[in-house]
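Course assignment 3, question 2. Fill in each field.
Student: A.L.
Task: Predict the tertiary structure for the chain below.
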Amino acid sequence: MEPRPRSFYVLAGFFTLFMLFLYGPTITIGILSFQGPGGGLTFPMQGTSLHWFRDLFEKQAVGDIWGSFRRSFMLGLMVMVTTVVVSVMGGLAFRKRFPGSSVLFYLIITSLVIPSILISLGVGLMFSQGGLDVHWATSGYGAQLTWTLPFGLLIMFAVFNRFDKSYEEAARDLGATPWQTLRHVVLPIIAPSLIGVALFGFTLSYDEFARTLLTSGSYNTLPLEIFGMTTNVTTPVLYALGTLTTAFSLVIIGVFLCIALWGARRKAKVGSDAGSGLV
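Answer field:
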């Protein structure tokens, strides 16, 4: 076996440092969240226990942790569904050029380069000046869509750019209607990409701070609640909350990956059965 070149160890060391820089803060918060009842916000740790996790499920003197979590979860689901539906419709629409398609494309992408706080300010002003309530489920929902929709549309543009139209032509030759072609041919083929768009939409919404700051009204979402707690909470309960929300995010990612894996295996099984003449 040939010895590894020195550059390998240099790159490996650099990668290790990068991973520590990337995940070190999250790991540190996770460790500090398991302190004992007398624990503080910094090292050294004062014992180990699940005290601060139990404290999360008791009535808090400050903040509305579980109310803000429910709002973030519901808002994430709303944004996710809307992002998937609109992204698929947009991807289908942009398969053929139409008057103004280039201008519309750049208008969609523009929201990614405008500072998020300005988007939040603009949406909040628009709702307030229009006599509408500034609320997390209306103005906050609209502001977050300016963040998730461009990503979803870009993914769908890439998917449909590589899509083989011969599948649709074969379906139409067999007598399928446009709706049947979309439902039974196009959507099953792009299903893994739809799962990716859904995951993007939910996770981007769940932890969005800047675009929700001036559009949530009097009810905070979870990121805003955590930010508010940093000014008046001086116990590791804040770290326990961060650890739980991180674990929740990982669980959501795991669920989406399991769905994608199940869909891929089901598709492979159907193809195998079809090839063997069982269906």
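Instructor remarks: Residues 195 and 257 are 8 Å apart (CA to CA). The longest helix spans residues 237-275.
Grade: pending
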